[in-house]
Amino acid sequence: IEEVYTLLELDTDKHSYITIKDELVHELAASELRINAFQERVTTLNQVAEYLLASVENKQEMKMNLSKLNITDKIGIDVVEKELNELGIQIELE
């Protein structure tokens, strides 16, 4: 917080303040885009996992739901779990 106050107290005519602000805004926007992409991917994988777990009851419905997500019906729960774990690791690294 002290660093933010120091930046705010700088003269706005100085290029260093503007450059720092622009870089921070750019980094925040890039991080937000990555987080949104991860969240969308996790949501899709969770839907696939639900369809796969429900496939025992109704294979035809599962195939239809997977085709809506543009995913082949040959995917397995192990693939979904692996992808979710990889996304979790990527999110932790961010």
TrEMBL record:
Pfam families: Relaxase_C (PF11083). This is Relaxase. InterPro entries: LtrB_C. Residues 2-91 form the Group II intron-interrupted relaxase LtrB C-terminal domain.
